[in-house]
Amino acid sequence: MLDDAAWLALTAVLTVLGALWTVRQGRRHGSAAAVRGVAITLLPAALLLTGTLRLGTRIVDAVVDWATSLVFNPLLWFGVGLAGLSVVLFGVSGAMARRSPEPDATTDPKKVSRKKRDALPPSQPTKGGPVLDDDLADIEAILKKRGIT
Known about the structure:
6 helices; mainly alpha; 2 strands; two-stranded antiparallel sheet
């Protein structure tokens, strides 16, 4: 891709531009801005000497290659759609788990723990009728009060 001379030229240009920006910011905003500008100006040389400048460009190249293949690859879009569907299904299953009662807790009283059995509302018998829970007894009382039987 780029040889060592090109990397050195790029670093020199970035350092000179940083130095000019540092002088400008130092005159406008004071010494704190100038010191911050010097810190930013030294970064391109540090990146070149540590090899991370080339690493950064490799990462950018890889992301650009991936993005262009994303745009023009229908099979990849199908994979993105499947990933989205998976996320939606996880959300739906969580919502369903919160809304549904515990399995076998209402059908088999032997499996209901004593703590949960005590927490259940007691059933009340009505006059001459079957055993109803509190909600149905309240509804029946409202209906009787209105004269509906």
